[in-house]
Here is the input.
Amino acid sequence: MPRGLHVCSFARTFREQFAIAVPFLRAGLEARRRCLFVTDDNTPDVVRAELLAFGLDPRMVSVVSSAETPLRAEALQPEKLHAAWRRATEQALADGYQGLSVVVEMTWALSVRADALAAYEREAGPLFEDLPLHALCQYNRIRFPVETLRGAGLEGHRHVLTERGFLDATLADEDLASDPLA
Here is the structure.
């Protein structure tokens, strides 16, 4: 049984994005994991305001811009990024937390080739088997092309988190195929 969790979500709207992210973060807090929200589409102040609007104390979640992290579309280096997530999780454990829960707005990767992003997501798998790292990769359904949603989103994650709960990636692919806006 893996110690961690690697899921994605597809949202069209701001409200939909936070309706998925907030319960994920709340579960992390209840499990005594350090919680981190990496912004890209939104500013940290906007994210903090939305967390509060959805009933989550924004002081309980570290909110940082993707520019403050090793996430760089122009130099996507999966090994370095995976090492950074490993260090962050190990630091959370050393600080007395039970692990790390992170939400990442994936728009930082809009300029990354779809196949390279899919490889990054797939290669992250061992992190979630070894560490109590829980990650929600949030893809903007309007801004990302469907081939990226399928490749990086569905092939890189076993499950998709929706407002209603978890979907198997196969079912989510059928949902994408039937969506005229995808």
Notes: Residues 5-177 form a domain with the Rossmann fold fold (CATH 3.40.50.300). The helical segments are 14-30, 44-53, 78-94, 114-123, 125-130, 146-155, 169-177. The chain has one domain: 5-177.
